[in-house]
């Protein structure tokens, strides 16, 4: 009887405990609130807020494939290789694939808009080199390569841009204001058949915008390359002014090359004839007394970081005509004091938004710079150079 009472009592206790637990509220852990990326439309399309900050970020870039024939790519007849079967020398395609990654940031502060911009470029393809050239795919010269400059491979990567800008002040790696402020020489691929100035440099710049079409820039620059990089505490100096309206604009820049104590300048006129037709004309002039001095430690062959054209003066001109929203025609012609001539023309077609195919034809006529006479720079191994370039580019 005691055992039976004990069992019944235990069962009753278990039922009571179970009932008490069933009456308690069930606690379920709630999920953490998700922090979705918010669109930032202050600086244009594509920006979003970095979670937890007031900084807007945009990520973009492009993938590009270039296929060149003839002298396209270097204009000195480098696209000649040796046939692996016969050993005969023959022409070949020049190819390059590029991946470019870009980032933009923007944030409003009490001192103005704080911005950054970066651009990284990675390349795979053929180097500019003949079969007999000892330069490798990375652009270096190596006598042990036994003439393999024409071989395809991973080439150098480049930090093309990396600068910080607060209001009008910009510091970091940029292209020279001698080019960026006044504008590049047309919408063609090979726009430097007659070169119009050096590009990459570390800079300290200040931009002033009056808000009525007038703007100005002052830039202290380091330059780059053998004849461009400063070798003292004195920087290169660039200054420019610009006036733009709906009809186009007029601009000018002046640069002081501290390495050679020379001055160069350019003026430019842009004209929007219609909504579909636009033109530009640009002229450059520079002193070159010290650039031609054979007593210099570095022989500049008449070309400094800014005055890179042959002789004292050069001119560039061209235009763009839009057949429709997808198709445009671009042309550029150039000429300098050395009688160098360059002509480039292309048709660009947007297959779909973000994917463009461009077909270009280029011609170069080398002037007196091709003659090695009293240390005059040897510009190319051929007087006439013709090439074609087909470009596929997906931008995002």
UniProtKB/TrEMBL annotation:
It comes from the Bacteria. Residues 1-22 form the signal peptide. It is a multi-pass membrane protein. The keyword Transmembrane applies. It is found in: Cell outer membrane. Forms passive diffusion pores that allow small molecular weight hydrophilic materials across the outer membrane. Consists of 16-stranded beta-barrel sheets, with large surface-exposed loops, that form a transmembrane pore at the center of each barrel. The pore is partially ocluded by a peptide loop that folds into the pore lumen. This is Porin. It comes from Mesorhizobium newzealandense.
């Amino acid at each position: 009887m005691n055992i039976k009472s004990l069992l019944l009592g235990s069962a009753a206790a278990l039922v009571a405990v179970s009932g008490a637990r069933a009456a308690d509220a069930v606690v379920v852990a709630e999920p953490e609130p998700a922090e979705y990326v918010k669109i930032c439309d202050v600086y244009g399309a594509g920006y979003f807020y970095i979670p937890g900050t007031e900084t807007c970020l945009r990520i973009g870039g492009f993938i590009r494939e270039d296929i060149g024939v003839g002298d396209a790519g270097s204009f000195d007849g480098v696209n000649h290789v040796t046939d692996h079967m016969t050993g005969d020398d023959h022409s070949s395609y020049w190819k390059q694939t590029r991946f470019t990654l870009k980032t933009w940031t923007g944030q409003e502060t009490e001192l103005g808009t704080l911005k950054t911009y970066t651009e990284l470029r990675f390349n795979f393809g053929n180097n500019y080199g003949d079969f007999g050239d000892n330069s490798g795919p990375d652009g270096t010269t190596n006598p042990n390569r036994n003439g393999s400059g024409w071989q395809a491979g991973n080439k150098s990567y480049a930090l093309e841009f990396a600068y910080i800008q607060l209001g009008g002040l910009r510091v970091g790696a940029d292209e020279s204001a001698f080019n960026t402020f006044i504008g590049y020489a047309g919408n063609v691929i090979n726009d430097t058949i007659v070169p119009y100035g050096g590009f990459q440099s570390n800079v300290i710049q200040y931009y002033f915008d009056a808000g009525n079409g007038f703007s100005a820039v002052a830039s202290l620059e380091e330059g780059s390359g053998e004849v461009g990089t400063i070798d003292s505490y004195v920087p290169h100096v660039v200054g420019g002014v610009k006036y733009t309206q709906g009809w186009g604009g007029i601009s000018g820049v002046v640069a002081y090359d501290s390495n050679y104590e020379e001055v160069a300048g350019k003026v430019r006129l842009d004209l929007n004839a219609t909504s579909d037709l636009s033109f530009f004309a640009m002229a450059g002039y520079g002193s070159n007394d010290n650039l031609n001095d054979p007593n210099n430690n570095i022989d500049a062959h008449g070309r400094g970081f800014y005055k890179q054209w042959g002789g004292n003066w050069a001119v560039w001109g061209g235009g763009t005509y839009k057949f429709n929203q997808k198709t445009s025609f671009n042309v550029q012609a150039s000429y300098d004091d050395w009688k160098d001539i360059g002509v480039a023309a292309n048709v660009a077609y947007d297959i779909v938004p973000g994917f463009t195919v461009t077909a270009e034809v280029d011609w170069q006529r080398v002037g007196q710079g091709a003659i090695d006479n009293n240390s005059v720079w040897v510009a190319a191994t051929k007087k006439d150079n013709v090439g074609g370039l087909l470009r596929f580019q997906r931008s995002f």
